[in-house]
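Changelog note: in this version the structure field was regenerated for every chain. One regenerated record is shown below for reference.
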Amino acid sequence: MSAVQRRGSITQIELAGVTGLSPATVSNIVKELTAVGVLHTSPATRSGRRALQVTLARSLGLVAGVHFGIRSLRVALADASMQVLTDLSMPLAPDHRADAGLRRATMLIMEMVESLDARPDELLAVGVCLPAPVDHRTGRITTVGMLRGWDGTPVPEVIADDLDVPVSVDNDANLGALAETRFGAAAGRDSVAYLRVSHRVGGGLVLGGQLVHGRAGGAGEIGHVTVDANGPICRCGNRGCLETFVGAPALLGMLAASHGHLTLRDIITRATDGDPGCRRVLSDAGQHLGVAAANLCNLVDPEILVVGGQLAEAGDILLGPLRTVVEQRTMPSTAGPVEVVTAQLGATAEVRGALAIALDTARVNGALGVSA
């Protein structure tokens, strides 16, 4: 069940490989668990051959994923097989307060459960991702001032008071890394570095198949690696952080005189259409990212570097220079340069990661019949 839950959907033959059990044993277990309503099977085709696809049964319940962005809120509900059943997004004020945002999220979850004709007690757990360093053990933001209006907020307790389910909280880049490792561009990889490049810059690390959090949730915060010790003041209080060179305010500021008011989406669209100024800004951003990413790769030696967030939509305009710098600045290896790819899950990565930790929490608590 743990193997099925992690993959979301998997064939019996693949289950045998993952678990080390014989195909006959897997077949017998699947039949038993399907008979008692724990698993669901359906015909499928793999490489031209018939196969039996295995998922967790919907009757096991629902999990919710919540992604708080800088200016948006996204909520998704999925069943135990990680099939997303409903997904809603809405805008938030840039300086929204935690209590208002969390209240809105819990109301959305309750409305979405009702829209599926499900009972409230079918909701098993909630996962939340925030755009700031988080102590995943307490669910509290660990760096004061990084997300105004949220300092000291006990997020799990606030949501659990309304929904009466276990709640897990983590950083958005961490959960993007987790989702891409389980379901996206890095599926099947053991060591993964993930960059989330959007209005802000974040990073997540998966080593040995597990998220790396560090002492207080700050592991992988590549956006706050110093690029220029005498550079601009960053929101974290330091000078010259990577984010002050490649975050949205920096990119938009560089184009304000020549292009007027733009959004990040405008820069990407115009660059794709050939605008030289927008292309140069994104190319320079790719080089800055490449320097920081190369340092990260020299430290942890990942199998793959996945680039997500809105800026990743610029494709090779951003990733081309990034790849070049990473190859130039990482230690030569007989394994070749680190593979650099665009995230597969796009804007859904973080909420998919939130759903994944919610399902993990449900499993550990025995709500899915599988305890730690």
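Spot check on this record: The chain has twelve helices and 15 strands. The chain has three domains: 2-56, 60-175+349-364, 186-343.
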